[in-house]
Amino acid sequence: MQNISISKILVPVDFSRRAEGAARSAQRLAVHFHAEIILLHVVEPFHLDYAMVEPFESSLSELAQAHRQRKQAELDAFAAPMLEGVKVTRLLAEGDAASQILECARQNSADLVVMPTQGHSRLRNLLIGSVTAKVLDESERPVLTGTHLEPEDELSDWHVRHILCAVDLGTRTDHVMGWGAALAKEFRAKVTVVHVASDPNASKSLADAIAGAGLDAASLVADGEPHKVVAATAEEFHADLVIIGRGTATSTMGRLRAQAYGIVRSAPCPVLSV
After folding, report:
1. Is the pTM of this model over 0.90?
2. Structural domains present in the chain
């Protein structure tokens, strides 16, 4: 069985309620795994209209510094009561948000990145934030998304009781099921593995893959659009977590910029991409 070690969890924050939801979910994981949380806020480069700046060029650096100090103070206060008792590192960076998140994950050897999607309510099936999309597509680390589906949701009671692994029987299948097996052991959760295919031999192939991974799981093969099948299955089985893999461009599930975006957008629970 694959060993899963989570000692550092990176949570990018923009001080929104969805960021609070991501921090709340990270806190629950950090307590369970005795992990450190890294809160990262990325400040956009400070600039003013050139016509306004020219007469006051000498004070521009002071304005930028004051702006950073305000953001640092906001970061220092962010989710402080919620994260009491958890080791927390708070980092401020400047530049492109997605690039800074990816770099921070690399430099700090984060084991997991936790961040919300942008869309909610009726728009949720249409939108995914550009920052989240780039991190999903380029991150070398597992990314947990969709942790705050609605601004009103209270996720303090989020538990992992049933895990749905969505696999394409490609090169990442063992990795997905390895995470499923490890998290199921950690949380004493049930596991169901779903594969979307019209191949009549897919059921046997899926059963062989599950047995080869040493995973105790129910299996399901269904035909249809992968993201719709996965979302419907997660809802039917009341899954608390969906695990998907970063596939190849030619796989049925596709790369993240293909089918997995649909899964992240439409799943009724958090999605872990590994």
Report:
1. no
2. 8-115 (3.40.50.620), 162-273 (3.40.50.620)
